[in-house]
User: What shape does this take?
Amino acid sequence: MRRTVRVFAAVGPAERLGTAIASMPAPVRRTLAQVAARTDLGLAAGSWQDEDGGCLVANAVACVGATGSGHADTLDLRMLDAFPQMSSRDLNTLIVAWDEATAQAGATDDPAMRELLRRGLAWAGVPLAPTVTPAPPGDGAGVDAEVAASYC
Assistant: This one.
């Protein structure tokens, strides 16, 4: 049986992620730049099960407002529905590159992951948006939804 050895040192984490981002359709690249800019979207794992962020795909889905039609919809399916020009292979490429780059960089918290995402986007030539920290939701009915939508 043949064994494959992955050599992380040959390609740096920003280049690894940037290569994957560069191959994505333009709307996906723009959405990833929005994810990188929003400090209210957690990138560290642990909260994705509740759909309140915690992974790159969950945050991209949140940015485009792709809601599922039921509990059977997975984040992956919502991502593919939100970006019809993206193939499942594209999505897998992005997820694997993100996982490998964060492991290689030792990025385990939000600031480190956000910086890695920004560096990957810059490597891919994607214009970076300024970092945004949205205000906590107020009690104005309807206003918060419009404000939240304007961030993505």
Observations:
- The first helix runs from residue 13 to 22.
- The two ends are 47 Å apart (CA to CA).
- The chain has one domain: 25-131.
